[in-house]
UniProtKB/TrEMBL annotation:
Keywords: Oxidoreductase. GO terms for molecular function: oxidoreductase activity. Coiled coil: none annotated. The keyword Oxidoreductase applies. This is NAD(P)-dependent dehydrogenase (Short-subunit alcohol dehydrogenase family). Belongs to the short-chain dehydrogenases/reductases (SDR) family. The lineage of its organism: Bacteria, Bacillati, Actinomycetota, Actinomycetes, Kitasatosporales. It comes from Streptomyces eurocidicus.
Length: 305
């Protein structure tokens, strides 16, 4: 099926992009294509060895690319603040909130948040707020793209039990964190529009793409048989990370992107070229998005707009 591909990415020369979780999977594929098309790319990664290795791979694949690793642990708000403070660029044209965890056994972040909600949503909420002045400085064309998932349908944020302390269910926790990503994008787009800002906030999901995200949880529990099963499923039915990155790259660079757009693979939200994606109605609820925003400001200590 024909459609938008990486060859359709406009020239990114002169633009600075920050991509979280760029050492592997969707983040690495996104960073590589942005670098190939001329962007200066900051690889914001938790693991230094993997981040530097990703930098070397991109330099090898895109000779002359301006790319560098910078440490960022989204599960530690002090690390998020340090990353923002140490970023030497006066302006940021593109922020891709890609990094995430999926279906982990119950864990807490450094700051005591449920790991999936804390990493996937709160860490990126704080990072976006801290980098927003630089994005606004970039002017027209600046974008914030946050990765959600088709599995956001598993549940929305419960303000009475944000950290699932009463009954932790790993997949429900993941779905809630991905709904939080869409609620965040919805509220951010609304606030940017109300402020007259040209910065565009959009979201994307990769469909079912083969990355190490699917195996991380079972690997942590040393469930070798389950890990092997996931690997076999990925090889049989998943699209590649490069294909999964296309909706993200479209949201980040295509000229037709509107505030609060949500892109994913066009074929059953599973695979194929990027297209505007269906989303659960609760991710467009103004009251829910405003409530999540307020509690996110309180929990992270980061306020903006």
């Amino acid at each position: 099926m024909n459609g938008w591909t990486a060859n359709d990415i406009p020239d990114q020369s002169g633009r600075t992009a920050v991509v979280t979780g760029a050492n592997s999977g969707i983040g690495h594929a996104t960073a590589l294509e942005l670098a190939r098309h001329g962007a200066k790319v900051v690889l914001a990664c938790r693991d230094a060895a993997r981040g530097k290795a990703a930098e070397e791979r991109i330099r090898a694949a895109a000779p002359g690319a301006e790319v560098r690793f910078a440490p960022l642990d989204l599960a530690d708000l002090a690390s998020v603040r340090e990353f923002a403070e140490d970023l030497p660029d006066d302006r940021v044209d593109l922020l891709v909130n890609n990094a995430g965890v999926m279906a982990l056994p119950e864990r807490k972040t450094v700051d005591g948040f449920e790991m999936q909600f804390g990493t996937n949503h709160l860490g990126h909420f704080a990072l976006t707020g801290l980098l927003l002045p630089r994005l606004r400085e970039a002017g027209p064309g600046a974008r914030i793209v946050t990765l959600s998932s088709g599995l956001h349908v598993l549940g929305t944020v419960d303000p009475r039990d944000l950290h699932m302390e009463h009954r932790y269910r790993r997949w429900i926790a993941y779905g809630r964190s991905k709904s939080a990503n869409l609620l965040f994008t919805h509220e951010l787009a609304r606030r940017l529009g109300a402020a007259g800002s040209p910065v565009v906030a959009a979201a994307a999901h990769p469909g079912y793409a083969s990355t190490n995200l699917q195996t991380a949880g079972v690997r942590m529990e040393e469930r070798a048989l389950a890990e092997r099963g996931v690997e076999l499923l990925n090889s049989a039915v998943a699209q590649s990370a490069a294909e999964g990155a296309l909706p993200v790259l479209h949201a980040a660079t295509a000229p037709d992107v509107r505030p609060d757009d949500f892109f994913g693979p066009r074929l059953l939200m599973w695979r194929g070229a990027p297209a505007r994606s269906w989303r659960a109605k609760w991710t467009l609820d103004d009251r829910a998005s405003a409530g999540l925003w307020a509690v996110s400001e309180r929990l992270t200590g980061v306020g903006y707009l």
